[in-house]
Structures are given as C-alpha cells and as structure tokens.
Hints:
Layout: H1 3-10, H2 14-20, H3 49-56, H4 64-74, H5 85-89, E1 104-106, E2 111-113, H6 115-127, H7 137-148, H8 164-175, H9 185-189, E3 196-197, E4 200-201, E5 212-214, E6 219-221, H10 223-233, H11 244-256, E7 266-268
Parallel strand pairs: 5-7
Antiparallel strand pairs: 1-2, 3-4, 5-6
Amino acid sequence: MARRGRRAALGAAGASLMLLAALPAAGQTATEPGIAAGDRKSGRDFLAPETRAQQDDLSINPGMLWVEQGEKLWREAAGAGAKACASCHGDPSALKGVAARYPAYDARLQRLLNLEGRIQNCRLEHQRAAPLPYESQALLALTALVAHQSRGLPLNVATKGPARPFLAAGRAMFFTQQGQLSISCAQCHDDNWGKRLRAERISQGQPNGFPTYRLEWQTTGSLHRRLRACFQGVRAEPFAAGSPELVALELYLAARARGLPIETPAVRR
C-alpha cells in the first residue's frame, strides 16, 4: 500500500487522529475484538524450554550485555550540559516502574513519547546532546537499562484523556489490512495465535519484552524494528522507526498487553 494512502486510512495527521478518537478504545465495550485479559500470553509462552531458560537466567541472557552497556552510559557525562543520566536520576533503580507506563502523553510537548523518545528528549533538553540514532547500540542500551528496572512489573499505560486519540490511531493500524498480502496485525496475532506458521507458533505479538534479543538477529533490537519487519513481511512500506505512527501502534499494543509483566531483556527466536 502506498504511504500516502495508508496515512489517510490510519489517520496519521492530527486532524485524522481526532476523527479516530470516535472509535471505541481498547476494553471500552463488550464488543471490542481481540484477546480477553485472562487469555493474554507473553511471547515467552511460545518459546522452546531452552530459550525460556536462556531468558530467565540473567547470567546467560545475551540481552544483559546491552543492560550492562547502558549502566556505563548512564554514568557518562554527555553534551554541552556535561551531565550524565545519573546526575538527575541517581541510580537506575530509581526508575523502577517507569517503563510500565510508556508510551505516555507528554502535556508540555503535546505528543506521545515512548521510552526511547523520553530518553532522547532528556538528552536534548538536559544534556544538550545530539539525539542518538534509533536502533543505535547506545539508545538500545539505555532503553534496555531503564526497562530492565521494571522487570516483573505489569504493563499499565494510560489510555484516557489526551492519550485516547493516539490509542485509537494505533488500534486502527492494528486492524487495517496492509500491503500486497492485505493482512492486518489482528489476523495473525488475535485470530491465529498458537497456530503453526512453518516451524514457529504464532504469538500474540505482545510488546512486554522489548528491547529484545532475537536469535534470528543475533543482536538486541527495539519493538519498532520488529514492527517494521512485520510490515515488510506483508509487503507493505514500513513507517520509520520512531515515527508517530509506530509510537501510536506501540501504545495500542501496550494497552492490549495490560497486566503482562515486563521481561526486558527478553529472548526470542
């Protein structure tokens, strides 16, 4: 699908976001399609036992290399402000619970920020440092460190008030058929989870383990890298990592996964 047509369909512009606010938000009506709260399953539940064990044992979890790198970056001064993350926040453990609430609407900036966006904004405003490229090792490491502080806590994003139109935009994208194959996220992850797709079982597409170490990638990657791969899989032009469209979809996915524990860094195939 051409990007121009897809943006019109999904309401990427601000005016379209307001129109989409009229759509029912996740969990608001009895007729909302999707997975019931009691049936929600993490991607961990679809892994082979040996891969689950690799995730759970932090001494052999390869994603912990990024967490450790994040700890070093946390204490390094950066930018013209010559401040480190630790200068304002102290120990990373002070951010326990933060990742469970993201993406979140920032009233001052008047936009939706995911965890990567919040880190970038801190760099710009407080450290006066250049933004880190999306999917760079440094941004992945800092995001993994912050998310890891909330490991085991349930996702619980805000979806009312100013966040509601962004939730509706993300929901619209989730249920819109995409690309040359004309497949929506919901057709795989709501309607066919647990079934076999070649050698793998289809998961519910829950976002509670990102940044995640994927054996397929042999590295750690963001949720937006995974979403872009899904777009490519259905032969649709993917939005850029960090784009407002993918952040809105991330909010809907987080709302859809409410109550699942954060597993960062997760290990996936």
